[in-house]
Design a protein that fits this description.
Elements lengths: L3 H14 L12 H10 L5 H14 L3 H6 L2 H7 L6 H19 L7 H4 L7 H12 L8 H10 L8 H11 L5 H14 L18 H12 L1
Length: about 220
Amino acid sequence: MLTIKQTQEALNVIAEMYPDAECELHHSNPFELLIAVVLSAQCTDALVNKVTPALFAKYKKPEDYVRVPLEELEQDIRSIGLYRNKAKNIKKLSQALIEQYGGEVPKERDELVTLAGVGRKTANVVASVAFGFPAIAVDTHVERVSKRLGICRWKDNVREVEETLMRKLPKERWSQAHHQLIFFGRYHCKAQNPQCEICPLLEMCREGQKRMKRRAKG
């Protein structure tokens, strides 16, 4: 596994590759971000961004989602995977925002995770992007890159990956590192075809070296 020093060196390289990495979900306020992140579960940001312009034009506040019939909301997000379940969760979380938080999105992660359809990853994204709290949201890209590089162990669960990254990176870097790891995983260290042969981290990447050896033999 990479040491703390090596982990930070790896993140320095990734930061140079993607200095402007940021949340790619389109939104203009914390409530829109919350809805977008809920919709993005097991779905690409690109697809969510195709749906949300019309959705956010139609629904401005939690009350709008509460009032609309479930079937109509389902149709509005039908092109997104798991749309039925997500429509139910959006209506439930909107109701909870009205009843418990005066229609506002809470800033605390512990409060966010009580909302329907909001797990730790979603709460971390909202707390970090909308409110500036240091957080590392571990999605499939962050998990894949962290395990391939050897920042954490292959057998680690998502929570363990998050805690390892938090331990190995200074707090002030958490939020930016989260976005940079996502960009690195989405555009360079891809699930199917990682660009190992041109990767600046190849020398310290255990998985990349294995892949290159297999290619050389093949």
